[in-house]
Design goal:
Elements lengths: L3 H8 L3 H32 L9 E6 L7 E2 L2 H6 L4 E9 L3 E2 L7 E5 L4 H4 L7 H9 L3 E5 H7 L6 E5 L8 E8 L10 E5 H7 L5 E2 L1 E6 L5 H11 L7 E5 H11 L3 H30 L1 H9 L4 H37 L7 H19 L7 H33 L12 H28 L2 H6 L3
Parallel strand pairs: 5-9, 6-8
Antiparallel strand pairs: 1-11, 1-12, 2-10, 3-5, 3-11, 4-7, 6-9, 7-8
Amino acid sequence: MKLARLIWKSAIRNRRRTALTILSIAVSIFLVSTLQAILASMYRSANPNSGQPDLRVVVHRATSITQPMPQAYRQQIASVPGVVAVVGVTWFGGQYIDPSNFFANFAVDTDEFHKVYPELVIPPDELAAWKNERTAALVGAKLMQQYHWRLGQRITLKGTIYPVNPELVIRAVYHDPADPSQERALYFHYRYLDELNGEAGEVGTFSVRVDSPADVAKVSRAIDTMFRNTAYETKTETEQAFQLSFVSMLGNVKLLLTMISAAVVFAILLVAGNTMAMSIRERTNEVAVLKTLGFRRNAILLLLMGESLVIALAGGLIGSLGAKAAYAYIHATYNSARALGVVFALVAALMIGYGAWLLFEGVASRGWAQRFRYAAAFLGGLAGLGLGGVFYAGVGFVMNTGFFLADFSVSMTTVALCLGIAAAVGVVSAAFPALRAARLSIAEALRYVG
């Protein structure tokens, strides 16, 4: 006999319990998918060129990355054998109109910028216009889209670190085909900032492109040796190591997110285990009938564990693919068609409202109890509408702030991981009660009173 039909019938015999179990697993897997997506985004942003040889090194003060260095160091670094080009990079940290409009903005040396960052695609005429105009700005394509800017538009950045407000003209737009999430930064002339700042002649860091991977260690040692025992000693490290240092400032984020994911998985296991134990206890007498009809122990074990696996995988699919679809939808609509966030909120309202409707399925079908069920579904829908709207706005805002969580998404690798977790939960949660039921003799199963 084929067990697939029996497994399906067993899974949907108590539709309310099955639906609520699937929903609880889906919500938990959604959270696990989100945590893994955040973790992947943080380390992806810290390794923007992980698929290519690391040919850039960053020079900063040995004492602290927040302390500046003399701009004159640039010429000395450029003279080191193996150095192709050097760009001074100063974090400006300005705001556009109000503090909520925050994005990465830097003052840089423009003459060798395209040599140090060759992965950025800039039209030649726009690159020339940016280099030749003192107040010109180079802006990422996604940042242009976010604020609906256009070439030739004038913008003003309000200084937060420096007491100056540069007035800039957008002359060039760059794309990063390898990693579009990096298209949320603005670059303007260091000379313009230095002029506004009283010609202090100080730079935050130097980005240095070396000739080959074999030269990275040699160039790093040569630069640090050059400035040893000076008033501005340096520390030179690869760009990836420099970016990862920002992640490490947040503490052991990887361990924290992993522990939260493990706690969520444990909670799923408890929910699924309790559900399957209840379901199997209710059918102990049926196990006796199946054995009487000739079902062997392995077939009964497969039937009971198959039911748990189907429920868990359904929740895993809904949770992981739902997370992938939700974040892709927010990313696609937040800047270009934010009004479509209403659709996202309506979907959340329908899901939570339907969950509340199922939760009270066992109440009386008429009178005050039925009215209470309608009220619960309506209030659940309203709560879902509000939560969906807040979630859409919050995630959209985080995706557009740039840095570590820019455009984070759920990868297919994460989906596969979450399906594996769901499958493991389904098997483990049903293993003990299924084994116990399968080992009962016919007489013991018939006498069992749950």
